[in-house]
Known about the structure:
The structure holds two protein chains of two kinds. By secondary structure, chain A is mainly beta. Chain A has a single domain, classed as Immunoglobulin-like, CATH 2.60.40.10. In chain A, the strands form two sheets. In chain A, strands 2, 4, 5, 9, 10 and 11 form a six-stranded mixed sheet that branches. Chain A has a five-stranded antiparallel sheet with strand order 1-3-8-7-6, with no helix packed on it. The radius of gyration of chain A is 14 Å and the shape is globular. The termini of chain A are far apart. The mean pLDDT of chain A is 91. At the A-B interface, strand 5, strand 9 and strand 10 of A face strand 4, strand 5, strand 9 and strand 10 of B.
Amino acid sequence: SQQGEEDPQALSIQEGENATMNCSYKTSINNLQWYRQNSGRGLVHLILIRSNEREKHSGRLRVTLDTSKKSSSLLITASRAADTASYFCATAIGSGNTGKLIFGQGTTLQVKP
Amino acid sequence: SQTIHQWPATLVQPVGSPLSLECTVEGTSNPNLYWYRQAAGRGLQLLFYSVGIGQISSEVPQNLSASRPQDRQFILSSKKLLLSDSGFYLCAWSDPSGGVDEQFFGPGTRLTVL
């Protein structure tokens, strides 16, 4: 079963606007991560938020985590055309040292210049 | 600095043919290694992961197998490809000593089975 579900599946905005993507998950997590994927490329790690954190910032990115609702959001402020990509949340679960992540289906973001 | 390589970048194979995709990591030791498959417009499905040489865990039953003959080499194989094996295959690594689970991805291999 899918651990992470992103919402919306697709988002189209104008350059300069903010973009918000949401992720819901089902089980307890150690941390939640967001990744970006440009078309036909590998994924790039954006930001990690631990289960005991509520908010984290990195440049124009802001991530929130609500463990009571099992949800997270990624906010990209002042979007640019170069932000056009797919964004995935991934949850780290379980014990041991496997480093396994469960990825959601992703949100495709289009930023129009 | 660490780098991860995958080859080939693209591959077109007939149904029933064998497959071998290779992934190598440089600049780190004892990494955890992962193979994912991504269908068009979809998320990533974890296929295999490895925490050490010769240690392979399979996440889903399928037509594929994985091997780790060296510390920084991860190979994805099939004896006979199916149409359903088409997709974008991604290799990734993480540092088990780092205390976090951030993964670093290779550029991927686009596999088309005809």
